[in-house]
Amino acid sequence: MLPLPAFLAAALLQDEPALDPALVRKLLLSLAVFAGFLLLRAAGRRILLSVNPKRPDLRLRWHLRLGQLGFVAFVVGMLVVWAPELRSMALASLAVAAALVLAGKELIMCFSGSVVRTVSESYSVGDRIEIDGMRGDVIRYGLLTTTLLEIGPAHQKTGRTVVFPNSMLLSNRLVNETSTHAYVLHTFVVPVGLDQNWQQAERDLLEIARGHAGHHREAALRHMGDSARRHGLEAPNVEAVVSLQIPEAGKLNLLVRIPAPALEKGRLERLILREFLQRRHPERPAEPGRSTPG
Fold it and tell me: Are 180 and 186 contacting, i.e. CB atoms less than 8 angstroms apart?
């Protein structure tokens, strides 16, 4: 007698069967469901062929509906047979999906912020924006981050770049200072004490503001009027104005609003403030015979 191969002898000597009985049973049930599906479809077709409908298209409709119902029944039968395994697989998939979401939460939020920026057209390259205390000109943006060329408190570039994640667009207020592109209505504050001659300060500040920003009035009015008509809005008043504000007892703020080119508002503000201070506090000439130190 020829000896049996080693792997076959080992399989015959095993106490446990090679296949799980539950798995074999499910496979047999699946085959039974599939065979039942085929038999029912064949029987339905034979019945349809033996019937003479009033219209020829009815047989085609019944045939299509029979096929659809049979397929639904087959899918339901397979779901019933493999329900425990499908439930375990669904739970495992849900756990993996939850882990991926937790691990990539920030990336997903950055991508969502990029979608918000694209859909709302919040800003583009060259716009000057401010978000969460960061202010600058947009020089680059992508799916995850936006890069700004920083603008300091005096409306001057610092030479530094600021990168912020696009996820900040979902939870922070964004200000686009160049949304009207060519011209803006720029506002700044000049504090004045109530014990001073604030009426004269208001008149001086208004005269200086109109002197520096007056030649931008016509161009700003034309540009903002066109923009307002495109959006169905009323054209704003572009005259240079000075308003009063009392932030607290004993203090007074003069609010100056001027029309200005979007990228020159800082320069105009500095010119107005310098002339206002020179008019209010003129430089005193040096006393004769008094030498300067050093």
Answer: no
